[in-house]
Amino acid sequence: MRKIDSYSWTEEIQKDTERWYTKIALSHYTVLSGAVLSFVILPMFYPGERALPYLFPVDNLVSPYYEIVYVFQCFIILVFILNTVSYDLTCCGFLMRLSSHMEVISTNLDKFSEYYPCPDYSKYIQGYSDSEKIISVYSNKHGSFRDLMNYDNYMIRRAYDEQLTDYTVKFLKDNIIHHQEIIRQISKVDMMFNQSIFIQLMGGSILFCIAASVLFNENVIWLKDSRMGTFAVFGFLDMFLFCYCGTYIMNTGEKVEQSLYSLPWYEMHPKARKMISYMLVRLHNMKGITAGRVIGVNLDLYLQIMKFAHSFIALLKEL
């Protein structure tokens, strides 16, 4: 049987989470700083207008102040968008990292199922058939040699089964601990970010609808409304990233579930079967990432948002 070394997955995931949480916190505070610059400091330089105006009143401003304010405002908008995207990418990168740990479990289970032994016990019995001395000695003292062989085969088989059971239980225990830590971290991510994901999905969908409706207007001025295209792309990518990561995590969970079903559990010890059933129950109850604890974040949700956005944009064009 191929030996798969045990590994302290809990410590590895904890180290990963500490690194990723630091990145997420740094990105989050950077986004807040960009929001402060965009919505608090900018109106001081641009009184009487919104913090993020769609069109600049060129006729009411005099050069070079207009150019300076225009460049500064575009820079602040760009910084805000890039920081928000970095926050999204960091959060999604952490989710993808957890998914990679889930794929490690699936690979381990597949290899274990592939190399799970159907042993030929005769290869563990050596030296009996060619040793006349052993035959004569044990035949005189313990009866027939056939009885001796049957007894030794039984003891070898029993010792092998015990060793195999111990190894199987240890292997499953390591992977269960690994899997429990992954589910715990996914639940922690969902608890920390479900409200922000809900707000970003709602804001991204509204931003995408408004920006697309402005861009599809017949009287659009592309030079002045080029920022609306940036907003539309940003809203599109913001929704797609979270929905894709949510779907990817659930798909990796299904891969682990399929790997568990493919195990030869019917040949295993009842203790190992109990561990497999426990792991299946945890997989069945895995919720993944949600938006506001209301709806699961996946590509189906993304398609529904896109359908709603298409209907909303068509309605605005008619108006």
Automatic annotation (TrEMBL):
MF terms (GO), sorted A to Z: odorant binding; olfactory receptor activity
Please provide the record's keywords in A-Z order.
Answer: Cell membrane, Membrane, Olfaction, Receptor, Sensory transduction, Transducer, Transmembrane, Transmembrane helix
Q: What InterPro entries does the database record attribute to this sequence?
A: 7tm6_olfct_rcpt
Please provide an example of a Pfam family that matches this protein in its UniProt record. Answer: 7tm_6
Could you name the Gene Ontology cellular component terms for this entry? plasma membrane
Q: What is its main location?
A: membrane
Q: Where in the cell is it found?
A: Cell membrane
Q: What domain of life? A: Eukaryota
Establish whether keyword Membrane is in the entry: yes
Q: How does it sit in the membrane?
A: Multi-pass membrane protein
Give one GO biological process term.
signal transduction
Indicate whether Cell membrane appears among the record's keywords: yes
Where do the TM regions start and end?
29-48, 68-96, 197-216, 228-250
Instruction: Give the protein's recorded name.
Output: Odorant receptor
Source organism per UniProt? Menopon gallinae
